[in-house]
Each structure stands twice: as structure tokens, then as C-alpha cells.
Design brief:
This protein is an alpha+beta fold and 337 residues long. Helix content is 33%, strand content 24%. Helix 3 packs parallel to helix 4 and helix 5 crosses helix 6.
Length: 337
């Protein structure tokens, strides 16, 4: 049964579901329940802050399970901190809902809290409001030792370009959701589940980000598509790059999906993997760090002095990326998600 806000009350919802979410941390002096949180930041650390909003029908299909929305709302922010090599600590949460669906909120909190506990994140505040369209806003704070944060502006000529995980899976899942009748016959039930999990419940590479301190020269998380996000990094570093298309890490499910998996790996969003650069001398150390972090990494290209991004095919032919699929842009004339 869906209960209206008037029947339950905003404060009842907070007390029932949000009062004690996430990890118990000694640096939280005062958490949810007062006008503001009191935190004790670690000494000799820089504060890292990220914030993302998820809007129903824009960032996730409207029928997505509430627990998956809770997971993703935190995961996308964890991915931002991972790209900065930061250790997450505290989160605030705003839930904007048309009505107080207590069952939905309970499942949302279950997904949010499971990931928060995994990464030792405490929920320390936020807000609940009525909204015509369901929306979730999370602000996440963490820390990094001074001078060790990864930024987009540190890539150097000769650096190797790396990515974590596999690319394009979430884009394929979104395409299947939008046009379910176009499911390729080679795609198994397990494949469809894998792809949908990659869209609904991405894995933020927090451990890898921390392990890259002192090894990587620049990093960005892949949220709007590899070409778009790597482009941000190249512009910030005032360099160019060539990618080897044959090197792109594609999952078996994406390969069976067909329909130009390379294009999905290049242009579709919601992967929430890390794209980073490092000198070739760091290759062995990066592979060891990735193994310790429990994720795969793949070298896919090289940083060059000539501006722009070039894509090299298996046959050695170079071409520039498509300008008709530049990645997700909320204010573009067309919708990419």
C-alpha cells in the first residue's frame, strides 16, 4: 500500500528508514536527526566532495527496482571519488518522491545501505520532499592525502591509457530496455541479466582508485561514455591520444549482443569504470594494484602531443570519433539515455 506523506509524515519516514543508515564511524559526532551533521575530518587530509542526482526516466528506467536505485545513487558518487583516488566517508541524501511509498523507501534503503556498509560510508543527513518526478540526490565526502588526489589534468605525452572492467554493457542494457523486441537471438537469459545488472548496479572501483595513488598521472570515471569522458581528460591535460579499438575490453555478453559492440563501448554511458593514464614504467605496478583491488584493467591507447582523439582499427586505419554520438548531455537537443 502506498501511504501519502500526510498519513506517515516526513519525520516518521526519516526515523523509520534513514536514522541509522550506513557504517558506524567514530568521526561522526552527530548524524541524522538534527539541523546539521557534526563531523570530525581526519587530520592532514584533503576533503573530497562529489554530488550526483538520479532522475527517474533519465538516469534509470522508471520500473527499476528500488534497491537498485538505492545502490546506484551511492555508486555513481563512489565512482567520482574513486577517480580522485579518495577514500569515502560520509553521505547526505535527498529523496524527492510523489508520495511516501514506504515499501519503495524500505527497498531503496536496503540497496543504499548494503553498498554504504561495503565502503564504510555513514549517512549523516539530507532531506525528504514531495516531487512530481522521483529524484534522488546524494552528496558524498571523503578524503585523500595532500598531493595524492588524481585529477584530469596530469596526463603526459607517452603515458599509457588504461580502463578498468568492461565497457558498453550498460549501454546495451539500456537499448534492450528501450526496444525489447530487438533482443538478439544469441543473447542468453544470463547475458541479459549481466547487462541489466551492469546498468542498474554498477561497481564503483574505489579500491582501484586508492591503489592508483602515486602510479597514475590522471583519471576520470566513465559515466557519459569513453569518448566523451576521455575527451575531458585530454582537454584538461592539453594533450591528444590514439586508442586501439581492438584493445577495448568487451564482455562476452556484449559481444553476443552484436549491434556494433565497439560503438557501445566508445559512446554509451553508465559504465562507471575508471579511465586513467600512467607512464609505461608503471605497467607492472598497475597490474599488481588492480589484482589486489579485485578488478581487471586493460591498456587501450597512448597519450600523444597532437591534440584530439584518434581511433585505430585492427587494420591500422585511423579515424576520428563520431560527432553524432558524443556521449550523454542533459541539455543537448537529443536524448542519449
Amino acid at each position: 500500500m502506498v501511504e501519502p506523506f500526510a498519513a506517515t509524515g516526513e519525520f516518521a519516514l526519516i526515523a523509520r528508514y534513514l536514522q541509522r543508515v550506513g557504517a558506524a564511524r567514530s568521526d561522526v559526532v552527530l548524524g541524522v536527526g538534527d539541523d546539521a551533521a557534526l563531523l570530525h575530518p581526519p587530520a592532514d587530509q584533503q576533503l573530497v566532495v562529489a554530488m550526483d542526482a538520479l532522475v527517474s526516466g533519465v538516469h534509470y528506467p522508471a520500473e527499476t527496482a528500488a534497491a537498485a536505485v538505492g545502490h546506484k545513487a551511492l555508486a555513481v558518487n563512489l565512482s567520482d571519488l574513486a577517480a580522485m583516488a579518495a577514500t569515502p566517508a560520509w553521505a547526505t541524501l535527498t529523496l524527492a518522491l510523489p508520495q511516501a511509498d514506504m515499501a519503495w523507501v524500505a527497498d531503496f534503503v536496503r540497496g543504499f545501505e548494503a553498498l554504504a556498509q561495503q565502503h564504510q560510508v555513514a549517512l549523516v543527513g539530507g532531506d525528504t520532499v514531495r516531487s512530481a518526478v522521483p529524484m534522488v540526490v546524494v552528496q558524498l565526502q571523503g578524503s585523500v592525502p595532500p598531493g595524492q588526489a588524481l585529477r584530469r589534468s596530469g596526463a603526459a605525452v607517452g603515458d599509457t591509457i588504461w580502463v578498468s572492467g568492461t565497457l558498453g554493457d550498460a549501454g546495451a542494457a539500456l537499448a534492450l530496455w528501450q526496444v525489447p523486441s530487438h533482443t538478439p537471438p544469441a543473447l542468453t537469459t544470463a547475458d541479459r541479466h549481466w547487462l541489466r545488472q551492469r546498468l542498474d548496479c554498477p561497481t564503483p572501483q574505489v579500491a582501484l582508485g586508492v591503489a592508483l595513488r602515486g602510479l597514475a598521472t590522471a583519471a576520470i570515471d566513465i559515466s557519459d561514455g569513453l569518448v566523451a569522458d576521455l575527451g575531458h581528460l585530454l582537454r584538461a591535460s592539453a594533450v591528444g591520444a590514439t586508442l586501439q579499438l581492438a584493445a577495448l575490453p568487451l564482455s562476452p555478453a556484449l559481444r553476443r549482443y552484436g549491434s556494433d559492440p565497439v560503438a557501445l563501448a566508445l559512446y554509451s554511458g553508465d559504465d562507471y569504470e575508471l579511465c586513467f593514464t600512467a607512464p609505461p614504467t608503471a605497467t607492472a605496478a598497475i597490474q599488481q594494484a588492480a589484482h589486489a583491488a579485485g578488478c581487471g584493467v586493460t591498456p587501450i591507447g597512448v597519450i600523444e602531443s597532437t591534440a584530439g582523439l584518434r581511433l585505430q582499427s585492427v587494420s591500422g586505419v585511423q579515424h576520428t570519433p563520431s560527432t553524432t554520438a558524443p556521449g550523454f548531455d542533459h541539455f543537448a537537443d537529443r536524448a542519449s539515455r
